[in-house]
Amino acid sequence: MSLSTNPDIPHDGQASVSRPINSAAPLPRLLHSLGDESKSVLSLMANADHIFTGGQGQDIAVWDRHKFTLKTSLRGHTGSILALEHAEEKGWLFSASGDSTVRVWSTVTFLPVYILNPYLETGAGDLFSLAWNPAMQIIYIGCQNTSLQWQGFCKLQLDRHVEEQWGSGTSTPTRKVHKFFDSYPQYTHRPADLQANNFSLSSSISQGAFVGTNALINISAANVIDSAHFGYIYCMALLPSTREGTGYLAQKPAQNYYLVTGSGDETVKIWHCNPSGLNMMHSFDCQHGAVLSIVASGETIYAGCQDGHVKVLDFETRTLVRSIIVQENVDVLSLSIMQSDLYTCSANGHIHRWSSSFDCTASWEAHDGIVLSSVVSCSSDRKSFCLITGANDGFVKVWAITPEAKDNLSQLHETSALISDSDVTQGDTMTYALSKFVSIPSVSSDPNHREDCRQAAIWLKKGLNQLGAQSTLLPTREAGSPLVLGTFHGTEGKHPKPRILFYGHYDVISAPPDGWDTDPFAVTGRNGYLYGRGVTDNKGPIMAVACAAAELLQDRALGIDLVFLIEGEEETGSVGFVDAIKEHKHLIGNIDAILLSNSTWISEHHPCITYGLRGVVHSTVEITSGVPDLHSGVEGGAAPEPMFDMIRLLGTLMDGEGKVAIPNFYNPVRHQTEAEKQLYDVLSNVTQTPGSVLSSRWSEPSLTVHDIDVSGPRNSTVIPGKVTAKVSLRIVPDQDLQTIAQSLVNHLRGTFDKSQSPNQLSVSIDRTADWWLGNLDGPWFKALKAAVHDEWNVEPLLIREGGSIPSIPYLEKEFGCPALHLPLGQSTDQAHLPNERISLDNLSRGKSVIKRFLSIATNFHAPTE
What is one Pfam family matched by this protein (predicted)? Predict the structure, then answer.
């Protein structure tokens, strides 16, 4: 086996994964082997008592799952058995064959129930795949002629079938022969196997079957989508998608069903199922050969491809999350999933097991041949599980499997519920939900946690739904973390409702264990504080605002629309955020005000409102000699060294008084007003910090050299051939972001050119964020200030911050409305540091402030269009 140890291999713009095996993970244990070496096992299905196998022979073998003995064979097909499907609630087994029929068998009596003939106006050919929809009682069939066909089995559908296809006649319809696909004997009368069983009304009615000639069903033209793909439809899976009910403890979620199909045309298509047919929703282009296998779990679709890749597709955002490279150029012919473990079965006989974070946790040679089929089955008490695999070596093998020790992600992946009756009686909804939210390590800076970020978005979407919002996920960029968009709709009144957008982020900074007293991804309560990564930045405030809206909604007191827009890459520069907002702005709608809570107070005990942020320009400065690194003992003094050039160049950025030396840098800076000076005097008394220091941190621009890196081994005998520096500028009102960025570039290039160094300089602007200043005299700010005062019974301190939040000035400009910043945490919350925490009192009273603010905002009338 050849597996790359590189955790993230770029591939067609996607994150591709081919990770080393976790050797500590146990391999599945082989319980038993079944079969005949002379027959390939093409299809498998199992229930609690039996294993059903189909192959190149025309019979379906039924094995006793407990004794591992052959119990019986189901005979009737005249071609290879290409697919099997189980309808557990009806006690049926469906079989699809190369003889272009689908047969339905009782899993109790093992007698035939129905025979389905696909619509054959153009010839269906081999029937490669099946999927059963239990809610709609429909079987879907993937055909060689690229058509997608289906047949319903509820009484109304069968009655309509009898009326349309049989009418008042008594003869069986003639099955049209296709000159290319049909190369086997045809019949134009009742099938012999049905005659031999001497079906009668009394014996078959209990099995749900029509009798006599009516046991033969010809699929009508209305149940066909021709050219559903431009290739054979090799595989399909059913994907239930739950629309959670609204409000606390919503009881009955609405269920939608989607059919996912994979084809030789290298695409995966999603179809919305309804009783009358299928509507195509989306098509993924996999670009790695035919799609040979599909399995779905939760919001995720896995597609096994011809060249050894498994494409991981996100159903909600309709995006390709990543590619798992199982084994290059080795077909992935079957996929199975149990809880969070994915099993990939390959053409070289190997099976790989993958965790929820796409780590390969096991690999073994399961068969001496091509693994063609697999299924995961559980015992009748659902306490034990097995993976059943079949191959062209003729054997069916039964493997005892257990899920990997469940990490937080696995548990959340299995359970969609945010709250339940028992949860609410055991504790506060907000803190319970926060503990679940924090347990997902959504570290956006670490590629190994990319899937955790996506799962955090999925969890939050479901949580907002259950709290009463209508939520969805919006894609950002290829392999990027999605946006969560959720709207709490307020009560309709005489006037148009105001619409407030709440911005936040579900990603967090990394949390190395050093310095933490407890597990950073398990919320721990201690002395009135909750500890955990993200509790204050920014998952705690998100849950406080969500629960505030939910409580108002429950009391029918929400008079505004509160729109949640939560991103997953704020900690890494909000890459793709702007483009995603522009693309999906029509889904967000008109906005009257923007609210965020993404910082802390200036002190321990006095509530604050943030009304200003500095902007930032991040740049990279690089000087290279154009030659390899040199030995200082050989070339020292003779070679012009990039390091000296870099030191001299960076020295020109600041003057002798510690001021930025870029020409005209300070000219646009807004002068401090008398009112601001008074604010700084107040804050100086509270913090015991001079007002001049606070002003320099918040309202004056600055320059920082963050890092200087060199090429080579970094020892004291090497002259590095390349030196790289990271430089940033913090900007304030009224400096123009683009002008300042270009001034930095111009200054560095102009100064370097004057030095006449033979080395080469390059300067790049990596990312930027504009400054933001709130309107202290606006009605929205006054409403927020009043809400804080009413809750805490003190006037809030008005503060600014020296940091930057790129999304806020952008959203303010994009939606043409004011932004408001309400910090909930205290100055000692340790955001981004070990032992990050938030006060339970701050969290609870912060929720109350939000409720007060939203109630005041109800009286604001949205402008009419």
Answer: Peptidase_M20
CA 832 to chain centre: 24
**Cis (ω within 30 of 0) for the bond into 145?**
no
pLDDT tens digits, 474-486: 999 888 899 999 9
pLDDT of residue 479: 80
* Residue 507 annotated in active site: yes
Helices (H) and strands (E) in the chain, counts: 17, 49
**Which position among 570, 571, 645, 770 bears the catalytic label?**
570
Helices 429-438 and 840-857: crossing angle in degrees, nearest 10, is: 110
Task: Using DSSP, state whether 765 is helix, strand or coil.
Answer: strand
What Cα–Cα distance (Å) separates residue 531 from each residue in 248, 423, 556, 838, 846? 26, 20, 33, 7, 17
User: Is it true that the peptide bond before 421 is cis, omega within 30 degrees of 0?
Assistant: no
> What residues of the chain score a pLDDT lower than 70?
1-25, 37-38, 121-122, 156-214, 242-255, 404-427, 862-865
pLDDT digits (tens, 9 = 90+) for 591-615: 999 999 999 999 999 999 999 999 9
Tokens for 182, please give them: 């049909």
385-391 and 395-401: which strand pairing? antiparallel
Distance of alpha carbon 298 from alpha carbon 453, whole angstroms: 15
**Whole-model pTM?**
0.78
> Of these residues, 126, 507, 571, 836, which one is catalytic?
507
Give the CA distances from residue 125 to residues 93, 181, 333, in Å, rounded to whole numbers and listed in that order: 21, 5, 20
The per-residue pLDDT for 156 is: 62
Task: Quote the pLDDT of residue 601.
Answer: 95
Q: What is the pLDDT of residues 109-155, one digit of tens each?
A: 999 999 999 997 557 899 999 999 999 999 999 999 999 999 999 87
**Measured between alpha carbons, how far is 821 from 818 in angstroms, rounded to an integer?**
10
What letter would DSSP give residue 277?
Answer: E
CA-based nearest residue to 566, from 583, 548, 541? 541
Contacts of 193-199 with CB under 8 Å at 24 or more apart are 193/75, 193/76, 193/112, 194/112, 194/115, 197/111, 197/112
Q: Is 37 assigned a catalytic role?
A: no
Distance CA 128, CA 125 (A): 9
pLDDT value, residue 161: 58
CA distance 144 to 127: 6
Q: Do 533 and 836 form a contact (C-beta atoms < 8 A)?
A: yes
Measuring CA to CA, how many Å separate 435 from each of 306, 432, 473?
42, 5, 22
